[in-house]
Amino acid sequence: MFVLVNLKTYPCDPVAVAEAVRDVNESTDARVAVAPQAAHLERVAETGAETWAQHVDPIDYGSNTGHTLAESVAEAGAVGTLINHSEQRLKLADVDGAVEAAERAGLETVVCANNPAQIGAAAALGPDAVAVEPPELIGTGTPVSQADPDIVEDAVEAAQAVDADVSVLCGAGISTGDDVVAAGDLGSEGVLLASGVAKADDPTAALEDLVAPL
Ligand SMILES: O=C(CO)COP(=O)(O)O
Description:
The protein is of the alpha/beta class. It is built from ten helices and eight strands. An eight-stranded parallel beta barrel has the order 1-2-3-4-5-6-7-8, surrounded by five helices.
């Protein structure tokens, strides 16, 4: 299972969480990675943790003030990027452009979507993976695998119908190892989570719990 920890803009110490991600990754068969804010990418990557960006824009080098260039993210040490997170939604054409930009820069891609229909559309753009995250469950602590298991199974089916090579992750409210196991039982190949680690008093303990059954 792939466990991708999105730090959003939570007021946590990104380097401390990254060190915990690195250490826990070494102690498990699961793949554990962290997605800090763009401004923290370099410091986080220097810890040796697998580092992801939260977003890249559908742009190339040039006059794009305030945008995030995929090549710069890769140069800062990211190996992959989220695209179209529910908190950073893009138009379909821009999702397509961002996937293209990420691939140009050698970044792995996870395109987020709210529901199975959008997952099918996202899978058609040829990312490495898609992630279904019902927005109403994000940050609630109620795991999608428990509150809405059908959405995960339907997302897996929708992605496979379009492109069987695209992996499916799920997210929203995931915070325990049991949640990760439940996500896997529904056909998901990984989880995307944030508050369960970024807002935890002890992020290392939270991460250890997440991977314990894997
Ligand atoms: O948006 C999410 C991960 O990208 C999910 O957030 P929570 O884990 O806080 O529900």
